[in-house]
Amino acid sequence: xxAPRPTSVWTPGxxxxxxxxxxxxxxxxxxADGSVLSNVITxxxxxxxxxGGVVPELASRAHIESIEQISAEAMQQAHLAWTDLSxxxxxQGPGLAGALLVGVNYAKxxxxxxxxxxxxxSHLEGHIAxxxxxxxxxxxxxxxxxxxxxxxxxxxKDPLGYCRLLGAxxxxxxxxxxxxGAQMLGLEYPGGPAIDLLARxxxxxxxxxxxxxxxxxxxDFSFSGLKTSLLYxxxxxxxxxxxxxxxDIAASYQEAxxxxxxxxxxxxVETSGAQALAVVGGVSANSRLRTLLQQRAAAxxxxxxxxxxxxxxxxxxxxxxxxxxxxxxxxxxxxxxxAQAAMASPFAPVL
Length: 351
Ligand code: KG4
Ligand code: ZN
Description:
By secondary structure, the protein is of the alpha/beta class. The protein contains eleven helices and eleven strands.
């Protein structure tokens, strides 16, 4: 094991971000002022598609094969030499242990060779940071809805930048509801984009899928009942020789997920008194969710941050951005930094 390097003060400059928590190998370079100079991503969808989901061992191997090339490409697109870097940010967790280890070890080797500070970043903090990547002046306080394969969480970020948890899913994350629903519908992995695409040809009002509100005023989510309802709908269809098109089912199922996300996000805005809403994470790439959020924000005069698609799904620009904030605040990791597959949320629940 390498000894921890002596802590040195971070000198502001370009930062390399590295993300390998699941099935995307990504590297990105931010300039000293935080603007994105490059954002390179390679997806392993082709590797995992025939298995219907991510196979951890194959993910680790694919990260090992691409990490050097993707990082070199990020440096090239940023027109920088390795020695121009002032720091490295890497996803520490949560995620697949073997996949995270590839990024963490690569970041440690680079930081050691270049003798520059590094920092481990929570993937969740990365997604949150993505809301400010294109719009650094987006205001606080702000409600943040994180919707990904692992999270459906509502936070209030206060003017000092601290996040408080307002609500979360009690069972599946929204992304899981999309992925499992897509599997039942016989669509290819990854399921979210597949449902999004198919739903464009369907009628979202064709089937009244249940929308779980939980108890009055709750900002928590639940998608397990919806999933079961989809299963029963499909079983009944087999028996009755379906009149309803599969696209109608996909559109109605998607509508049930996104309607509840929009409803609870705006309820959180109302109860918190915030004037701004940010929606981040892979599911925020959903076209129907984006339309409904934009319509309602415009109707209510609310400021909305919806990152461009490249910053919604996993990317390294968001990791570099979160790492930059931490380095600026004086944090640094030692070279003993370890991946944390089950890394806990850095944010406290509301009391
Ligand atoms: O943030 P992300 O790339 O990885 C995690 O941190 O989990 O989110 C991945 C999730 C998957 O469940 C995927 O199906 C979903 O985001 N997703 C979508 C869309 N694009 C990605 N869900 C609905 N519509 C989309 N267009
Ligand atoms: Zn993610």
